[in-house]
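Structure Section — protein described below
Tokens — whole-number codes for backbone shape
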Amino acid sequence: MRRRRSERQLFEYRGQWIGEESGRPGFYRYWYDDGSRRVKRKALPGATLEQAKEELIKILGNGAPSKKAPSEVYLFDVLKHYQDFYAEPKGTKQLSAASRAAELILGAFKAIGIPSPVVSDLTRTAQRRCWTQIAETADLVPKSIHTYMISVRAAINFAAHPQVIHVDGKEHEVQLLDGTVPVFCNEDEIADVVGGDVSKPRDYIPTYQDLGRWIDAIEEEDDFRFVIIMLNTCARNEAICDLDISKQVNFEYGTIDLNPPGRRQTRKRRPVIRMTTNLAGWFSYWGDRKPIRQYQDTVEKRLNKIGKPVIDGGTLGVNLPEMTCYTLRHFMATNMRRASSPVSKEQRSKWLGHSVKEGSKTTDWYETFDPDYLEQPMRATEEIMEKLQKHTKRSLFAPSTKANGRVRVIDGGSL
């Protein structure tokens, strides 16, 4: 049933009216929402009734505001939409990061006097105030704030595009916003506002001896598999954990498509690369469709603990506090440049999934059928694995594989 309009109605224009709320300063605009069958309200900035009238006329001058306008949609709803329909399907790590970003930005808005922000409240000034609040209350450095603001920006962009979501087994097309607002994610600017240093590129690269000791300290099978795949592909963590051999590996052509079917390429590109003899041997030996059978977070946490001090003292015989599973990618990229056979910058970039602008997508696709496709980084990888084996007690080659083997590329098959 339609609720009766407030007796405090002071002015009406185009179906909306101005009123006051008991115990609250200022003026509000009210309108009846057919969808929810409720009267909704929103504060007007005007300090006097005349200023409030001018503001209402300005708002409604070109018709009623869109229900999807950034000024009408709550930031909480946008962040929750992103968590439920994008982050959660990606896994616990993505959901945890998105949830933490939402908690920080909403908490910061509350602290600066905006307890229920709409998307349009994300002005540059408000964002800078939020950065300061987050830095003080959560004790975060500029790099961390930068990362969480990227999540906020992603949530707004996600809400501004039609998304097909599944609720109770049915498909629904949902678009919360009809436009975006700029979210500022510049780490230099954040550092200027909150203080602190800008992050620096990782400069720690382990020696062959150190990496060998680190690998020998691995206890879990899935952790060892992760390391073997990382060393042979330089793939990013998520790509390794997503890998499905039955869908992404072509044994006839000797290629691995690190981008699974149905996944859209992003700036962190997942390339098609040559499969090394070493990795082909392990895939055959393991015999699993999904080599990594445990959650990404579980594997990463175990690997990242190796070399760190433990509760009862010591480092399990491996004192490498800067070593993480992602360091393997930097190790391979660095030593690829030092290989006995030169590896061109373009081929290194393609192998690592960096953007290479020359050529078209179609040309790149046909190149993957060339017997010499990414031959240089593949050979360099084989050389690095052979050298690394000299510094590990554990075999880095599958029982049926010999070092210096060669993957043969033949005609036929499909990518």
